[in-house]
Amino acid sequence: MRVLVACESSGTVREAFRARGHDAWSADLLPADDGSEFHLLGDATSHLGKGWDLLIAHPPCTYLANSGVQWLYNKKDGTRNEARWDAMKGGADLFLAFLNAPIPRRCIENPIQHKHAKALIGRRQTQTIQPWMFGHKECKATCLWLDGLPPLVPTTDLKEETFALPYTERSRMHWQAPGPNRWKVRSKTYEGIARAMAEQWG
Fold this sequence. Notes:
This protein is an alpha/beta fold.
């Protein structure tokens, strides 16, 4: 099966599929972290019409995620932050390019979106998963919009063990220290989730 993993430089999902014998490629504006030859450098949307069987896309969530809704209005006077609204529209357009791609099986991944983003996207997520459902003792709600694919089935339920941990430990991604690579660390797909995608959708 030919698989395109859009907006991924880590190669985590790409390699999970390649390990199962699929012709999987990642595509991103950034080069592959691992230097893989199976990485398309540039705009991932330019590759959507090239005969893929499955698309897994991780479009940037900066302007769509619920955590960023506070920046849509200026704190001083409550007026609209027009630059932020424009950026949100651009983020939604990219999301929709993947959601409506000419590929029979599609998974678009993003965090929980705020109401303005939901209005632009026009449909709710198919399911919401957590890392603790797939063998990681962490909390990080991840939403999946699915077309032509069944919902992911949890593989290793560690909910009890996860919630026994201190909040800052089980929510490690939320508490990542500020730095130039914080966004990159927080956006990387958990290996347990990547394996489940490859096993169940491959």
